[in-house]
Specification:
The chain has one domain: YjbQ-like (Jelly Rolls, Sandwich). Helix content is 26%, strand content 38%. The chain has 3 helices and 8 strands. The longest helix has 14 residues. It is elongated and about 50 Å long.
Length: 136
């Protein structure tokens, strides 16, 4: 089995934001030269997450609105006594900081409407995205 590792940075502009990273992940899978296997997409941050969903403006706004509703800023979280970003830690914990995708015939396997997105919950920041491809 081969293992191939890559990473890249994304700069976010807003406190809450969704950034489509599909193209960058697909480029990494292609560069790996791995034909069949798995691709891990990981945001090594405690206040960001990775999701797979449709990249449609209305839906992106709906997702952000739901996150703000589920994890509102300044809601009296104990962690806010240390750092004013407990909402972002909660969002990341519930969404997850990684996703795994199949690789088949050298291409990322995803649904017709599935794009890979970074969920920024504590921006603006520069985030590192790790892509690890394992297989043959």
């Amino acid at each position: 089995m081969k293992v191939w590792f890559s990473d890249f940075s994304i700069s976010t502009r807003n406190r809450f934001e969704l950034v489509d990273i599909t193209r960058r992940v697909e480029e990494a899978v292609s560069a790996s030269k791995i034909r069949d296997g798995l691709c891990l997409v990981y945001a090594p941050h405690a206040t960001a997450a990775i999701i797979a969903n449709e990249h449609e403006a209305g839906l992106l706004n709906d997702i952000l609105a739901k996150l703000r509703g589920l994890f509102p800023e300044g809601a009296g979280y104990l962690h806010d006594r240390i750092d004013d970003n407990a909402h972002a830690h909660l969002a990341s914990a519930f969404l997850a900081s990684s996703r795994t995708f199949s690789v088949s015939w050298g291409r990322l396997v995803r649904g017709t409407w599935q794009n890979i997105m970074l969920v920024e919950a504590d921006g603006p920041r520069t985030r590192r995205i790790v892509v690890e491809v394992l297989g043959e």
